[in-house]
Amino acid sequence: MRHKKNIHKSGMPPGTLVYATDQPTTRDAGVTLFDFDEQLVVENAIHEIAECLPFINAQTVTWVNVDDVQTPGLLESFGKILGFHPLMLEDILHTDQRPKYEDYGDYLYLVVKMLDFDSGKNEIVVEQLSLVLGENYIISFQERPGDMFDALRERIRKNASRIRKSKADYTAYALMDLVVDRYFDVLEKFGDRIVALETILAKHPKPDTLRNIHKLRQELIFLRKSVWPLRDVVASMQRAESPLIRDSTELFLRDLHDHVLRVTDSIDTYRDMLSSMQDVYLSTISNRTNEIMKVLTLFSSIFLPLTFIVGIFGMNFRNFPELDWPHGLQGTLLLMLVTGVGMYLFFKYKKWI
C-alpha cells in the first residue's frame, strides 16, 4: 500500500496548480488519441494539446489518454485550449482525491481509484484516474504510464464492437467498468492472503500473525476508502439530468453500480473475517497461556506439601527426636513419594490433568 506525499499550497488561491516535484521531468507525458465512429478509427500520438481540437469538435467520439499528470504545463494547456475550470485541473493534479462526480455544465468530471496488486512487494497499488466527459469526447488523466485499458483499445479497433456504435458516455462507462473489474482481481488476491493467514492461525499462530492481521486490516480500510464512495459516483451518474449521459447508457450504469455493491460487500465480509481472526488469535494465545499456568500450578501444588515436609525436618532444634530414628531419611522420602503420587492421582481423578 503506497501512500502519496501531500502537496502543501497553504495561502495560494484556489485553482493554483502545484506539482508534486520541484525537479523538471525528464520525459514528456504520453498523450494518445483514439477518434472513432462506426466506420472509421484514427489512432494518434499527440505532441501538442491543440492537435486534439479538430477531433474533439467533430461528430465522432474522441478518447484522449494522458499517462502523467505531473508533467509541468500539461494541465495548463488543457485548461487554456479546452476551457476547463481551474478547480477541476487542481483536483486532477492533486491525486489524493476521493472518488467523486461533478457537473460543470458542458462537461462532467469523474474521479475513480484504479487498484492493482504488486506481487513482488505483496501490496496494493492505487492510482487516481480522472475522467472528463464532454459531448463527443472523453479525456482520461493517469498518474503514471501503464494501465488496464488495452482490452478497450482492442475493442475500439474492431469494427463490430458496441463501443464503435456508441457515444462518449459509453466510453466513460467502459473505462470505469474495466477499473471495477480489476477490483475483483485485487480482492481475489486479498482473499488468498486471508486464507493463508487463517491456515497459519489454525496450526501455529506466532507474534508475526497478529502483525499480519493488522497489516491486512489497514489495507482493507484503505481499500474501503478507495472503493466505497464510488457507489455514490455511479448512483449520481444514474440520477444525473445532464444531456451528456444518454438513456441508452443508464442500463450499463445500473450494472456497474451492482458490481460496485458486490465489491463493497466483499470488503465488508473480509473486514468481519479479519476481526474474527484477531479474536481467534487472542483467544488462542490466552488459552495457551492458561494451559501453561495450569501446568505450573499443578507442579506447584504437588511440590508444596513436599516443601512443607522438608521444611519441618530441616529445622535446627536440639530436641528433635525424629532426627535419631534409624530409618528417618527413608521414611521421609517414602512419605514425600506417597504424598506426591497421591496429589497426582487426586488431580487425575478431578480431570485437572
TrEMBL record:
Pfam families (UniProt xref): CorA (PF01544)
Record-level GO cellular component terms: plasma membrane
Gene Ontology MF, one: cobalt ion transmembrane transporter activity
Membrane topology value: Multi-pass membrane protein
Cellular localisation: Cell membrane; Membrane
Keywords: Cell membrane, Ion transport, Magnesium, Membrane, Transmembrane, Transmembrane helix, Transport
Transmembrane segments: 295-317, 329-347
Chaperone among keywords: no
InterPro entries found in the cross-reference section: CorA_cytoplasmic_dom, CorA_TM1_TM2, Mg/Co-transport_prot_CorA, MgTranspt_CorA/ZnTranspt_ZntB
Physiological role: Mediates influx of magnesium ions.
Family the UniProt entry places it in: Belongs to the CorA metal ion transporter (MIT) (TC 1.A.35) family.
Protein name: Magnesium transport protein CorA
This protein's encoding gene: corA-1
